Amino acid sequence: MTDLMLKYFRNKQQSVEKEKIYDSQCPYCSMQCKMQLIEQTVVSRKVHKTVGKDNPTSEGRLCIKGLNAHQHALHRDRIKQPLMKVDGQFTPITWNEALQVIGDKFSSIQKQHGYNALSVYGSASITNEEAYLLGKFARVGLQTKYIDYNGRLCMGAAATGANQTFGMDRGFTNTLKEVPNTRCIILAGTNIAECQPTIMPYFEKAKENGAYIIAIDPRETATTKIADLHLKNKPGTDVALANGILKVIIENGLIDDEFLAERTEGFEQAKAYVTSINLSEIAEITGVSAEQIYQTAMVFGKEESGMIFTARGIEQQTDGTAAVRSFLNILLATGKIGKPNSGYGAVTGQGNGQGAREHGQKADQLPGYRSIENAEHRSYIADVWGIKEKDLPRKGVSAYEMFERIEAGDIHAMFVMCSNPIISNPNSNFVRKALEKLDFLVVADMFISETAKLANIILPATSYLEDEGTMTNVEGRVMLREASYPIVGEARHDWQIICDIAKALGKHKYFTYQNAEEIFEELRMASRGGIADYYGITYDRLCKEKGVLWPCPDPDAGGTVRLFEDSFAHKDGKARMVAFSHQAEVAKPVATEQFPLLLTTGRVMSHYLTGEQTRKSPSLSARNVEAFMEIHPDTAKNYGLIEGVLTKVESKYGWIVVRSKWSKTIRKDTVFVPFHWTETQNVNRLVANELDPYCKMPGFKVSAVTVSPVS
Ligand SMILES: Nc1nc2c(c(=O)[nH]1)N[C@H]1C(S)=C(S)[C@@H](COP(=O)(O)OP(=O)(O)OC[C@H]3O[C@@H](n4cnc5c(=O)[nH]c(N)nc54)[C@H](O)[C@@H]3O)O[C@H]1N2
Ligand SMILES: Nc1nc2c(c(=O)[nH]1)N[C@H]1C(S)=C(S)[C@@H](COP(=O)(O)OP(=O)(O)OC[C@H]3O[C@@H](n4cnc5c(=O)[nH]c(N)nc54)[C@H](O)[C@@H]3O)O[C@H]1N2
Ligand code: SF4
Ligand SMILES: [Mo]
Predict the structure, then answer these.
(1) What stretch(es) of the chain map to CATH 3.40.228.10?
(2) CA-to-CA distance for 591 and 573, rounded, in angstroms?
(3) What's the gap in Å between 155 CA and the centre of ligand 4?
């Protein structure tokens, strides 16, 4: 540092009049990096910066999103009071007024149309306490079967795939600590370098230690750059690709016979199917050469340890469950699971993408990963909640299907908490129409999102800086997010909002919590004995131990570090293998004369999901001010597109206008558009309404489109 610089910093430090430090966790991805907001008063003005804080998963690192997260939380556009739409304009009202209107409306709609006329749409960006409470609120407060959440569009296929194969869904079977010691890594449809940036040192260390890394992605990304081998497959062909890899493994005798015999079921069916297919046909379907498939299989099969990671690239497909299970077949056939340095990782997306999929926000689920259709589970939870089992609703429908039920006239009102479904659901022109058709829409958000614009009432929620609670991170590590920043305006915590509405409906006695910890204490009981057992976890432990890995049934014992060491979670202890045909049960969009290109969608480093938060942050939005369409120059020329022009992208479902961005590294038959923007840049206007039959995941990663310059 030069003398001049030193002098500058010393002066700057001296002019700080006051400094306050607030602990929290990043509001964005599943790494849940621990952080501190430093608030300094300099010349009577508050200035802020965010710094990382050490913990077992993120080890003190932050990415650019985390470093700038406070910019949206402290943004002047935060809603500070409840808003009610009067003659098309939002008008500030008091909480009492808002709750009175909501109570009256919800009650009158249910009186007229029955309990199931109300619906709840939740989120995996809220805390475990809030996710748990929202599930209880739907079933006990509203007595409706209609609740689902944004994680359906996210972790649906990974969860169903793991549940079916292993009998249990904790995203990572091993901790990140083991990654540097593994010998071979398959990254299937995951862009960790841009989506979980602070995870990268684990993979970089693996590479330094000599691991062979294979990435599967139709595009070149910051992640595929670290790979030794990049399989640039055609979007939507991952089942075929995984089958091809398994075929080569089996035919070259690289399977673990003992493991297969003792720990699995179904291998013979899988073997019979994959050996019956032809490798050159697989190469043709996937656009990956037979040599590259062979190379992948031989390295993964021969190395003594290996891990497979999957994310939305293979999962957000109408055969997403089949794709996950096909990759799990490879792990099981080679016996690379349940032992050190070998295992599976479904790279969870949202901050609480793991915990929020365990405690009852799903249409068919009760807390502790219990099933709402299981008699024993129903009576256990009914007891915890102090209601009669017969009063507990049955299962409802998935996120997108709720909009279909609105259209069909079954659902008349919706309560949306912490989600922006118009931008994030497929076929978004339809979703907008459905929301417009509702008699009554209530949205709890920090901002007036695209979805909130359609609400009758918007309730202001607190941010990650203000709202304490637990989040379960990418490793399955339950962590206490401390949050003590002064509440902005009259915003309330999501759990308080749930309790307040319950009270307005006369259900106060079931929702009498004073703080998040009291809710967690009930969640512990509700999850006890379930698959996702949190009974042994307390706030006190979370503080002392910097997080606990579930399942943790015993308050006096540690959590579970590595899963499936002795047995899988199915009753007989065995994992289930099954091979799927690449001909999906729900047909995928294919290139036609009218729509000759394949569109895939995803993310950029600087924005988060529907962009409602990151577009508010000047430092982040400056990096990408608008959506774009990545296209190969040769393809672009065929369609008369020059670099950087506004382009109309059209599918059977709608059109958008985004700027073309040439890239020589994307497949020539594929274009890519990120989904962080709204209105005519909302790529979900193009995505079809078809869903995976097992997990109801939409096909976000393949649409058939055409492109043309905007004249
Ligand atoms: N910067 C940033 N980080 C985020 C998020 C964000 O919005 N922005 N969101 C968070 C959330 S909620 C999630 S779910 C995760 C998502 O994390 P990822 O799943 O890693 O992100 P995506 O960009 O959706 O998709 C990953 C990759 O799949 C590729 N892909 C597309 N189609 C296919 C296909 O058919 N087959 C294969 N094999 N690959 C394909 C895409 O080119 C992309 O590079 O990220 C989390 N982190
Ligand atoms: N085409 C395409 N579509 C996709 C995907 C894709 O890859 N491609 N990915 C899918 C995936 S993986 C996901 S996870 C979904 C996400 O979809 P959404 O859930 O719709 O996305 P978010 O932007 O997280 O919306 C969160 C909303 O809640 C608000 N909010 C943030 N924090 C809080 C809080 O603490 N409390 C309350 N009450 N509100 C809060 C934000 O301001 C924002 O309006 O999108 C899916 N849609
Ligand atoms: S976005 Fe994810 S990786 Fe980046 S700081 Fe936040 S939690 Fe960490
Ligand atoms: Mo997600």
Answers:
(1) 157-347
(2) 43
(3) 7
Return all residues near 540 (Cβ < 8 A) that are at least 6 apart: none
Q: How far is the CA of 152 from the centre of ligand 1 (A)?
A: 15
SS3 404: helix
CA distances from 314 to 324, 549, 601, 666 (A): 7, 26, 12, 17
Ion ligand 4 neighbours, Cβ < 5 Å: 154, 349
Neighbours of 275 (CB within 10 A): 13
pLDDT score of 461: 98
CATH number 1.20.140.10 is the correct assignment for the domain at 597-709: no
Q: Where are the CATH 2.20.25.90 domain residues in the chain?
A: 13-73
CA distances for 472 relative to 120, 458, 669, 703, angstroms: 22, 28, 39, 33
Phi, psi of 510 (to 5 degrees): -90, -5
Q: Is the CB of 614 under 6 A from ligand 3?
A: no
Best mutation site among 24, 25, 33 for ligand 3 pocket (most ligand atoms within 8 Å of CB): 33
Q: What is the pLDDT of residue 15?
A: 81
Of all protein residues, the one whose alpha carbon is nearest to atom 23 of ligand 2 is: 610
Instruction: Identify whether the C-beta of residue 345 lies closer than 8 Å to the C-beta of residue 328.
Output: no
Instruction: Assign domain 157-347 to its CATH superfamily.
Output: Dimethylsulfoxide Reductase, domain 2 (3.40.228.10)
**Which residue intervals of the chain bear CATH 2.40.40.20?**
597-709
pLDDT value for 3: 72
Closest residue to atom 35 of ligand 2, CA basis: 463
Torsions phi, psi of 612, nearest 5? -55, -35
Biggest CA pair distance of the chain: 76
Instruction: Please say whether the beta carbons of 132 and 469 come within 8 A.
Output: no
- CATH number attached to the domain at 13-73: 2.20.25.90
CA of 75 to the centre of ligand 2 (A): 18
Note if the pTM is more than 0.90. yes
Chunked into runs of 10 residues, the chain (711 residues) has average pLDDT values of: 66 82 98 98 94 98 98 98 97 98 98 98 98 98 98 98 98 98 98 98 98 98 98 98 98 98 98 98 98 98 98 98 98 98 98 98 98 98 98 98 98 98 98 98 98 98 98 98 98 98 98 98 98 98 97 96 98 98 93 98 98 98 98 98 97 98 98 98 98 98 98 79
pLDDT at 11: 67
End-to-end alpha-carbon separation of the chain, Å?
53
Is CATH 3.40.50.740 the right assignment for the domain spanning 83-154+352-549?
yes
What pLDDT shows up at residue 10? 66
pLDDT of residue 8: 64
